[in-house]
Amino acid sequence: MKREKTQVGIIGAGPAGLMLSHLLARAGIASVIVERRSREYIEKRVRAGVLEQGTVQLMRDTGLGERMDREGLVHRGISLRFEGRDHRIAFDELTGGSTITVYGQQEVVKDLIAARIAAGARLHFEVEDVSAHDVSTSAPKLRYTFAGEQIELECDFVAGCDGFRGVSRDAIPADHLVRYEREYPFGWVGILANVAPSSEELIYASHDRGFALHSMRSPTLTRLYVQCDRGDTLDDWPDGRIWDELHLRLATDDGFALIEGPVVERAIAWMHSVVTEPMQYGRLFLAGDAAHIVPATGAKGLNLAVADVRVLSSALDSWYRTGSPAALASYSDTCLRRVWRAQHFSNWMTTMLHRFPTDDAFQRKLQIAQLRWVSSSRDAAASLAENYVGIAAV
Ligand code: RFL
Ligand code: PHB
Questions:
Q1: Can you name the residues that pair with 384 across neighbouring β-strands?
Q2: Dist. CA 392–CA 381, nearest whole Å
Q3: pLDDT digits over 73-86, tens only?
Q4: From the alpha carbon of 102, which atom of ligand 2 is closest?
Q5: Phi first, then psi: what are they for 357, rounded to 5°?
Q6: Is 197's C-beta closer than 6 angstroms to any atom of ligand 1?
Q7: Is the omega angle on the peptide bond into residue 278 within 30 degrees of 0, that is, cis?
Q8: Running DSSP on this structure, what letter comes out for residue 179?
Q9: What is the mean pLDDT of residues 310-334?
Q10: Which of 285, 340, 345, 387 has the most neighbouring CB atoms within 10 Å?
């Protein structure tokens, strides 16, 4: 077994792990990232699309803003579509100027990888059998196999940034963790179509047949989602059925025309909320989807991952600079305040916009009443807007 050393051992090269390594490097703290997938795989993984203002600003402030500012699409609002009409939520007017930016998660990941590699980072792809050890001592370790060689990496700290299906949580004794969870009885069939978006802004549609979302990645790439039943497979959703449902659910009284195009990517995502508390055990810190996931309706997952590692990098910086463990000790509580705000918002958006199998006609009337209120009361619309663009203080 070959022995290596670093200050912070990071499991996972998603947005959380890569951004953490980037922020630590700026503070002069060394890290090693171990990722089980290939670089090509993670750069192609199509996921989130919406960056909060704070995420955008962090990218800019840390030298990652150049391509995002050129190619990202700044949006000043979204549309809630129901009863055949659009109801615009004007983020900038309602929040004192805040906006969101549509820039694909895989683009953020590409930019982070390029920046890390240019800075000479130790970023290892296709690493196998990663496990964390001795995390309750002052000498935690990662063990893994890389290029056929078994490695033991001695660290000061371990960051579990390995997503929802990662292994870092396994290093925490079960009786130290509480898991809060809600499964929704539906998912989203998502497609990426090689065609210009049919609308300039995102459209969140609540229809008697279920939810649909019109989003985009660029002036020539449209991202679309339709609510499906839990347990459906992609075989249940040939392209024709997806387009038919999108046309029905996105229809308006004034003849909205959804433009079809070749489907270049398709996947199903289940709507699920999970929080594991606390987000720390000894010298192991969980960040991003490894600690919590939200249903995609609020567009919060990637933004929460970035917010976590921002808190973690500054707490580690404080420990290395002053020797004080205070900021590290409050990491979990600090993050969980934002996480639960985002959980509430994501749950609220999800229940307001989707059709549940148990919903009756009464429930649908309530849903429509709520949608009318959110889009007609300035205070209600401002609350949606404030949460969507990202709350600075929670
Ligand atoms: P990731 O991105 O899952 O990265 C974890 C990384 O760890 C690796 N890994 C391991 N490496 C080594 N050893 C192991 N044993 C490992 N196990 C796992 C994985 O290969 C991976 O590279 O987690 P991270 O960094 O916490 O980032 C979280 C985000 O990816 C996630 O929250 C968002 O994609 C959620 N999400 C959205 N978030 C937004 O903020 N805005 C959106 O608009 C938005 N839309 C979405 C979404 C997620 C979706 N899906 C597919 C669930 C839309 C969809 C459809
Ligand atoms: C996306 O563009 O992929 C997207 C946008 C908004 C969401 C979720 C996903 O709420």
A1: none
A2: 18
A3: 999 999 999 999 99
A4: 2
A5: -60, -25
A6: no
A7: yes
A8: E
A9: 98
A10: 285
Q: For residue 225, which atom of ligand 1 is closest to its CA?
A: 55
Which pLDDT tens digit goes with each residue over 110-134?
999 999 999 999 999 999 999 999 9
| DSSP three-state, residue 382 | helix
∠ Cα 165 169 175 (to 5°): 130
Domains of the chain, first to last: 2-49+104-177+278-347 (3.50.50.60), 184-271+361-389 (3.30.9.10)
For residue 291, what are the contacts with CB-CB under 8 A and spacing of at least 6?
Answer: 160, 275, 276, 279, 308, 335, 339
Judged by DSSP in three states, 16 sits in helix
Residue 340's alpha-carbon distances to 14, 285, 322, 323, 389, in angstroms, are 22, 18, 30, 30, 16
The CA distances from residue 341 to 80, 352, 379, in Å, are 21, 16, 18
Q: Whose CA is nearest to atom 1 of ligand 2?
A: 49
Which ligand is the nearest neighbour of the Cα of 105?
Answer: 1
Contacts of 8 (CB under 8 A, 6+ apart): 20, 21, 24, 29, 30, 31, 32, 155, 156, 157, 158, 159, 316
- Rounded average pLDDT over 352-375: 97
Q: Is 296 in the pocket of ligand 2 (CB under 6 A)?
A: yes
Ligand number nearest to the C-alpha of 342: 1
Kindly give the distance from the C-alpha atom of residue 107 to the centroid of ligand 1, in angstroms, as a whole number. 13
Is the CB of residue 192 below 6 angstroms from any atom belonging to ligand 2? no
pTM greater than 0.90 (yes/no): yes
